[in-house]
Specification:
Layout: H1 13-36, E1 41-47, E2 50-56, E3 65-67, H2 72-104, H3 107-115, H4 119-122, H5 132-141, E4 156-157, E5 163-164, H6 167-178, E6 183-185, E7 189-195, E8 198-204, E9 208-212, E10 217-224, H7 230-245, E11 254-258, H8 267-278
Parallel strand pairs: 10-11
Antiparallel strand pairs: 1-2, 2-3, 4-5, 6-9, 7-8, 9-10
Helix pairs in contact: 1-2, 6-8
Length: about 280
């Protein structure tokens, strides 16, 4: 385990905060439901292998009033009320535990510990946690040579000032830039593929290599823009299969977007994809 992986628990902080918010919504919903729940309680009785329901209230005997089958909604409401009354305290305990952890966890202390060190000392130390800014800077620092764009290809520029091959790629790049998602354009990647009975290594240039900063996970994003073409589509299937053979799977660390003449790519779809996997 690398030193900067020890505190991977920091990656779950946003998840815990989301869980706390969801728990609070559920707690509020249960409290509201209990206020509207019918008075009394549900009693069950078995008769000739059939379960019967009885509604026990202050105005009935201890046995309660029989609930016919056509009033199953009342039985459900009473059963749900009893369940919610028992579940609510447990939900509140969960919320308190998460809140306690979030309030006590001070990741900034570790970030500042390293950030405040002399630059000379920083070079000698492997921190247990790096700030997002430091992590992003190191991820982007690697120098690489992308795939050459031929002179006869139209010049299309992104907001970041780099040249790409298509308007769709420009839309993707500009969306990533606007959402502050770190990316590399056509960064070379060596993958192994099967040819006949042998396996060979080849270099591919994924359209975008992106970094999910929150998860500190790298994603490859390929855009396929000519899905009308049968030969092109066949190549897409082969390429995706190659990615899978090298540990890149859709939804896990591989993002694929597609378009055709009838279904063009649009900015809304790009943003939804980016927010789903990269934020």
């Amino acid at each position: 385990m690398q030193m900067n992986e020890i505190l991977s628990v920091a990656n779950v902080l946003p998840v815990l905060q989301t869980a706390a918010d969801q728990l609070q919504s559920l707690i509020s919903a249960k409290e509201k439901a209990l206020k509207k729940a019918p008075a009394g309680r549900l009693r069950l009785s078995r008769r000739k292998n059939q379960v019967q329901w009885f509604h026990v209230t202050k105005g009935t005997t201890v046995h309660g009033k029989y609930i016919p089958v056509n009033e199953i909604g009342r039985a459900k409401a009473l059963a749900q009320k009893e369940y919610d009354q028992k579940a609510l305290p447990e939900l509140k305990k969960w919320r308190l535990l998460i809140d306690s952890f979030l309030n006590r966890f001070r990741l900034q202390n570790l970030e500042n510990l390293y950030a405040c060190m002399h630059e000379g000392r920083q070079k000698l130390v492997s921190p247990v946690y790096e700030s997002d800014e430091t992590y992003i800077a190191q991820w982007l620092a690697g120098v690489y040579e992308g795939k050459k764009i031929e002179d006869d290809v139209p010049e299309i520029m992104t907001l970041r000032g780099e040249r790409v091959r298509s308007k769709s790629e420009a839309m993707i790049a500009d969306t990533l830039y606007r959402l502050k998602i770190p990316y590399k354009y056509e960064c070379p990647l060596a993958i192994r593929h099967k040819k006949g009975t042998s396996r060979n290594t080849m270099t591919v240039y994924p359209d975008f290599t992106c970094l999910n900063v929150r998860l500190r996970q790298e994603f490859v994003w390929e855009h396929f823009g000519m899905m009308d073409d049968a030969d092109y589509s066949s190549q897409v299937a082969w390429k995706v299969t190659c990615f899978e053979g090298n540990g890149y799977f859709l939804g896990k660390n591989l993002i694929v977007s597609m378009e055709s003449s009838e279904i063009p790519l649009d900015a809304t779809r790009i943003e939804k994809i980016a927010m789903q996997y990269l934020l």
